[in-house]
TrEMBL record:
UniProt xrefs under SUPFAM superfamilies: Polynucleotide phosphorylase/guanosine pentaphosphate synthase (PNPase/GPSI), domain 3 (SSF46915), Ribonuclease PH domain 2-like (SSF55666), Ribosomal protein S5 domain 2-like (SSF54211)
GO CC terms in record: chloroplast stroma; cytosol; mitochondrion
Lineage: Eukaryota, Viridiplantae, Streptophyta, Embryophyta, Tracheophyta
An example Gene Ontology molecular-function term: polyribonucleotide nucleotidyltransferase activity
Residue span of region Disordered: 389-412
GO BP terms, alphabetized: mitochondrial mRNA catabolic process; mitochondrial RNA 3'-end processing; rRNA processing; tRNA processing
UniProt keywords, alphabetically: Exonuclease, Hydrolase, Nuclease, Nucleotidyltransferase, RNA-binding, rRNA processing, Transferase, tRNA processing
Name the UniProt record assigns to this protein: polyribonucleotide nucleotidyltransferase
Length: 571
């Protein structure tokens, strides 16, 4: 069962007092005023005094508390200012909780784990929730209902910003349900909370028992007067040519997302490099904090099947898998792969390696492939669950070895493209964009200013001039706008790029392989999904998420951005 939200902990009795050493520090921290959703009785309580914090990123301050465990804090330089990170005084029943302050913007994040693990599956059971309370800015809802409503679209997007960089760092074989809660307690209208939410989640996970692989942090990069600015203010962003949100570790990049005013690939890579430098310094300071007050990692809770089992699956499938992957039609290829997977599972079940009904497999059969490994360390209850046996690692080998993709294309070749405008006679503009077996019908509807929907958000409250009903492709949307007679500066196009690292685990040399115009299967089995939009002069929008623990800047410089814009506009 998950722990209660940390804001409710104010209503619970505090744990017994523990004695800790207090450091005398010369710079006291300013008071933080958090709007907490608690009862009147709790609000009448006198706030606990704040403690001093060190000015250096590597100095962690610890202060004994009369009401519970010690409080730890650290100031981390980010750009031209510092952010304050505090832990240990709110949300003590959570696995970990932190309060991150930038100016008068305060964000609280907690991590909670279930008491028992879920059944084995091929994904990490992680849920992320981000909420912006209007009370954080001293406001109430402008609608008829004053109570905070459902999650807004902007909040969902921030949840995805938090999830994308965290998920690749989570260990395989860790099946404990994990919940991350992020609340904006205070907002000053100057310092944006979304980039703070990524860093706060990374710190909370690093402090918790989750045996994650590396510490992560997030920053926003702006471009003002040809100078890169780390975590620019809202006023600075009004004059910025770039809005780059990125996250990573001290040595690699995990996620980038944003838009720009048709910057060149070289300029965008320079921005990514500037962000990586800032992230590296934040991660170093987080590691110092973790050494001071981090919890012991649940390494013993990780349960994985032996590597020999994957090789056994490859031996069973043989050339049949390669033939199935080379089927060009999507539907027949899917049926062939599904039939082959059933065959592999059936053979493994007969040999005692897999149990479909949840009963234990034959331990003697497992020993045949485990060799000298300790079965108790890699097998749960003497069995390998069906969810752990899949053929995805095997499907990654043919592209780098044979040079041809599953549908017969070369790595840089595009699928056949066809487009048609004016399909819907009563719509203001419409276009059907077809690329391979993927189709997108884009529709444009024009309306006056009085028809605009008012969005009541905490951050960037403004009138929405567009109503978006679905995720239309960039190409189809651009065609539909031109069909409606909307004056645009120039047409744009978009494309999805992929990456296969071909790691040594699967017999490769580690050299990356860039794929243009990836399919759904390549997205699922590949290591990177990079979406790029723009024209021949530069990039206008981009979004990248990966499935490995980061990619380095030299890998990104090898071609993904440049090749992506060139192939996108060639459409």
């Amino acid at each position: 069962m998950l722990a209660f939200p940390a804001a409710l902990h104010l209503l619970l009795p505090a744990p017994p007092h523990h004695h800790h050493v207090a450091f005398a520090l010369p710079h006291p921290a300013p008071p933080l005023h958090a709007s907490l959703p608690c009862s009147r009785r709790a609000r009448r309580r006198a706030p606990s005094p704040r403690h001093g914090v060190a000015r250096a990123s590597a100095a962690v301050a610890e202060e004994a508390s009369s009401s519970g465990p010690a409080k730890f804090s650290v100031r981390i330089p980010v750009g031209d200012r510092e952010i304050l990170v505090e832990t240990g005084h709110i949300g003590r029943q959570a696995s970990a909780s932190v309060m991150v302050t930038d100016g008068e913007t305060i964000l609280y994040c907690s991590v909670c784990l279930a008491d028992t693990p879920n059944d084995p599956a091929d994904f990490f059971p992680l849920s992320v929730h981000y909420q912006e309370r209007l009370s954080a800015a001293g406001r109430t809802s402008g609608g008829f209902f004053k109570r905070e409503g459902k999650t807004k679209d902007h909040e969902v997007l921030v949840c995805r910003l938090i999830d994308r960089p965290l998920r690749p760092t989570m260990p395989k074989g860790f099946y404990y349900e994990t919940q991350i809660l992020s609340w904006v307690f205070s907002y000053d209208g100057i310092h944006s909370p979304d980039c703070l939410a990524i860093t706060a989640a990374g710190i909370a996970v690093a402090l918790s028992e989750i045996p994650n692989k590396q510490t992560i942090a997030g920053v926003r990069i702006g471009l003002i007067n040809d100078q890169f600015v780390v975590n620019p203010t809202t006023e600075q962003m009004e004059n910025s040519e770039l809005d780059l949100m990125m996250a990573g570790t001290d040595s690699a990049i995990l996620m980038i997302e944003g838009y720009c005013d048709f910057l060149t690939e070289e300029k965008l890579l320079e921005a990514v490099e500037a962000g990586q430098v800032a992230i590296r310094e934040i991660c170093k300071a987080i590691d110092v904090l973790v050494q001071s007050c981090g919890k012991k990692k649940m390494v013993d809770a990780i349960s994985l099947p032996p590597p020999e089992l994957y090789r056994h699956v490859e031996d069973i499938s043989g050339d049949e898998l390669l033939k199935a992957l080379q089927i060009k039609g999507k539907i027949p290829r899917r049926k062939a792969l599904s039939a082959l997977e059933d065959k592999v599972i059936s053979i493994l079940s007969e040999q005692g390696y897999v149990s479909k009904d949840g009963s234990s497999g034959v331990t003697e059969s497992l020993a045949d492939i485990v060799e000298d490994e300790d079965e108790d360390e890699i097998i749960v209850d003497g069995e390998v669950d069906e969810g752990d046996v899949h053929i995805k690692p095997v499907s990654r080998k043919p592209p780098p070895q044979g040079g041809k993709r599953s549908d017969g294309r070369s790595p840089w070749e595009l699928r056949p493209i066809n487009s048609q405008c004016g399909l819907l006679p009563r719509a203001h503009g419409s276009a059907l964009f077809t690329r391979g077996e993927t189709q997108s019908l884009a529709v444009v509807t024009l309306g006056g200013y009085q028809m605009a929907q008012r969005i009541d958000n905490l951050v960037d409250t403004e009138d929405s001039k567009a109503s978006i009903f679905s995720m239309a492709s960039v190409c189809g949307g651009c065609l539909a706008l031109q069909d409606a007679g909307v004056p645009i500066k120039f047409p744009v196009a978009g494309i999805a790029m992929g990456l296969v690292l071909d790691t040594q685990e699967f017999g490769g040399d580690g050299s990356p392989l860039i794929l243009s115009d990836i399919t759904g299967a390549e997205d699922a089995s590949g290591d990177m999904d990079l979406k790029i939009a723009g024209n021949e002069s530069g990039i206008s929008a981009f979004q990248m998420d990966i499935k490995v623990v980061g990619i380095t800047l030299p890998v990104m410089e090898q071609a993904p951005f440049k090749l992506g814009t060139e192939t996108a506009y060639s459409e």
